[in-house]
Amino acid sequence: MAERFIKSNKIRIGDISISYHTKKAKTESTKTIIFLHGFPFNKNMWREQLENLADDVEGIALDIRGHGNSTSGHGFFSIDVFAKDLRVFMEKLEIEQAVLCGISMGGYIALRAYQIFPDKISGLILADTHSKADSNAAKQKRFDSIQAVLNHGRRPFAIGFVENIFASQSIEERPEAVELIKSSIRRNSVNTICATLLGMASRTDTTDVLPTVAVPTLLIRGTADKITALQDMVDMHHALPSASFIELENCGHLPNLENPEHFNKLINDFVARI
Ligand code: MLT
């Protein structure tokens, strides 16, 4: 079973401890791919990807500050802080270069990381994400969500979130994915959920970096994604010098869980070409 090659570890970086899964490569010459989860999930959303990586690829899926089993540290979350955590994490693990695969919030982090330390990034896979900052309306929605979580707790938030996040076909056919996401949301503390909502509301627009991206880039979106608008990804595609954009049918916001077979083939073919 491929599963046994996945190990869980913890590493201290600055004021936090980062929890991560690794799937070691079986060969000597290796490439590294780092998976960045969305909000408010954790590293377990990438298990199927880790399990199906090619033998010459080392895969790492980490819990972003405050999420899953990583600690929160100072508690002042921002996409900028998450990207800087990633840089220190890569330095500590002596990873010279990696492909970053980020979904949604993970994509915001990957793009900010490319702005700060492009030389450590050998490729970008950006799924159901975009480069724009929140509009005023989007910020207000996050502030309303914070109030709702503070007043009513995580459970109703998780239920509403899940209904929005998956394609209806996935809700019927992928109950294990739906359960994984529900339980991931509930495992994060109220503080983490609220601090991350504020962190996303305060993120900077990374559109300026797109024309400078000099590494292979793959954009993926579920055609039934109700959270990341198609136009935002089309705009990002046009601004990138050379990127492929693939849409996955019958998938919502989390195509890696909704159609892992197709998603895995896309990322494996992409990494093989790097
Ligand atoms: C995510 O999945 O990470 C979130 O939907 C991102 C966001 O709310 O902007």
Main sheet, how many strands, which sense, barrel? 8 strands, mixed
CATH level-4 homologous superfamily: Alpha/Beta hydrolase fold, catalytic domain
Q: Which strand-content bin applies to the residues?
A: 15-25%
Which regions are unreliable across 5 or more consecutive residues at pLDDT < 50? none
Q: Give the strand tally.
A: 8
Number of domains: 1
What name does CATH use for the topology?
Rossmann fold
In angstroms, what is the radius of gyration? 17 Å
Helix percent reads 40-55%
Q: Which ions, cofactors or small ligands are bound in this entry?
A: D-malate
Organism: Sphingobacterium suaedae
Protein name: Alpha/beta fold hydrolase
Domain AB hydrolase-1: 32-260
Keywords: Hydrolase
Features:
binds D-malate; Rossmann fold; globular; 8-stranded mixed beta sheet; alpha/beta
Topology:
Layout: E1 6-13, E2 16-23, E3 31-36, H1 47-51, E4 57-62, H2 79-92, E5 98-103, H3 105-116, E6 121-127, H4 136-152, H5 154-165, H6 168-173, H7 175-187, H8 190-201, E7 217-222, H9 230-239, E8 243-248, H10 255-258, H11 260-272
Parallel strand pairs: 3-4, 3-5, 5-6, 6-7, 7-8
Antiparallel strand pairs: 1-2, 2-4
Helix pairs in contact: 2-3, 4-5, 4-8, 5-7
The protein binds D-malate.
